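check this:
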Amino acid sequence: MRRGALCLVALVVSLGLAAHCRDRIDRWIAQTVLPPVLSDVSVEVRGMDGTLLRAFAVENGRMRLALRLEEVDPKFVEMLIAYEDRRFFRHHGVDYRAMLRAGVQALWYGEVVSGASTITMQVARLLENSGTGSSAGKLRQIRVALALERHLSKAEILTLYLHHAPYGGAVEGLRAASFAWFGKEPVRLTEAEAALLVALPQSPEKRRPDRHPQAALEARARVLARLQFAPEARQPEVPRQMHAFPQDAPHLAARLHRQSAATRRHDTTIDPHMQRQMQALALRAVAGQAKGVSAAIMVADHSTGAIIAHVGSPAFSGDNGALGFVDMTDALRSPGSTLKPLVYGLAFDEGLAHPDTLINDAPVAFGSYAPQNFDGQFRGMLTVRDALTLSLNIPPVLLTHELGAARLMSGLRRAGTRPELPAGQAGLAVALGGVGMRLTDLVQLYAGIAQGGRAVPLRVEREHAAKTGRFLSPVGAWQVSHILAGIAPPSGFSAATGQVAYKTGTSYGHRDAWAIGFDGQHVVGVWLGRPDGTPVPGAFGGDLAAPVLFEAFGRIGSIRMPLPLPPADTLILGTAHLPAPLRVFQSREAVFSDIPNRPVVIFPPDGTVLRRSGFGVPLKLRAGVLPLTVLVDGLPTVTNLRVRDVVLPLSAAGFTRISVVDAQGRSDSVEIRLD
């Protein structure tokens, strides 16, 4: 040790006094190969106010958060420089006076009494991960420090120190240390907290407060004593455990990181307070449920499309099995009855029905497809309003048959959703959930309904996205919203603080329980079920998901924004006062069924499934005034037909509509499927 100290003293003397060697020393410094000075920092996902939601570790699992000098309390910087390197702003990388003093003290006392490393030298050591136990290592640090001072400003060198200083375990840098030990940003440190973080990098493992609290207390006390801070600043306790780094919106954060791994910082629209509220609500929602039941919640501002809360599962861990890592906001599921509002809205726009139109809830069959209500009962004639309120199945299928399943799919796509069919073309079952949808899709759909039928692209980045095309008229969207707002809240909740227009849904086999709703500003979507798709016996959207939906609105705010007033051209009349065609719903087929001698398709029957062959599809007709015209999917295929049977050249797999029109404009049509 004494020999090493003598060498250092000799080096100081040679560097400080040997003017005749200055040129050689300059070349020695200029030829220094510097280590990389660009710090690899953790990828961060931040909330709408800049709050850290989640950070991802850099190499070897270390946490190193980006930090600008202006984001640090100036008092901490003053404390650091006063304690570590008082002449930091006056030397050029090496403090010769401190080095000479340290060498003389080591010679005199036979041990190291004071250090001589400057902040720049510590940066050199940290960048190269080099030790200090040898004269060669110290000499290398001196050389790199002198070279760093020639290429970087003092502020840049200080910033490097604040990024790389070790604070125990896998924590590097002041900002990561501030989160790890005090759970907050470094701009909010107290004097005592700052003093501990000044002392820790000198011996980060031996002074770790969670493992060696007494050593941490003594180190902090030495900093405060040397800097002569007031006794009241000397708090008796040090943190006894590390704080966990924020893990808010973990599924969303992981997706953003996966999609753009090179981006160091993602600024999102997430409201951190609202996010934590919804995370807690999701945990509460699955408490006491059957094993494996998960939950997902989304909250968005439907006026802007900004997603302000995103919960993919109650816990981003293996506590709920490996499926806890599955983001159920983006999982393809059956939406159950949640698409019915769109069916009714499209029917209103097409003039097929009005909220007070009577419709017959009675047994019906479309070929082999015979929809049933969930409870197996039939209500007979009732208004469309009541049919949607009661979530009956037969009325929306009747309307979809008139609209065409393709029209419903088109409406979903124009709303900005991404529906996926299990196989083949869309059928009438789409109206009852026979299509794959995501929670994100349903929130998108209901946001558009809340905005008067104009699609509102959901977004999580701060850039504003303009509304896109229209999928419902303002009148149709308001009529649907008005009906949904009249649905009674679940037991235990009141609508006194403001209306919520909402719809629940339960998929086939009780695999998914849904509740989607909106007020005048926010749209909320809730899903509960098992991520692996196994049934949850007895689970209904109204019983399981609706209470969570209303509690979510309660956590958003005690007073909700009201729903809009009806558009000026809205027809608000009772059933008896509606125009005659709107008083009672009748299918187009029923309307024309009473016309004498109209053409009738005998074969193939409506809804039949035929096997494809190379001979086409035989068409057999009855009645009708010749000549006849045959249309396939709306396009004339056979014209001036003067017989009542013909073979149509059909061979493509999927659904096909065949229509026949006679010479007097009377018609009949059927829909078939070729396999």
User: Anything to note?
Assistant: Residues 135-151 form the longest helix (17 residues). The radius of gyration is 36 Å.
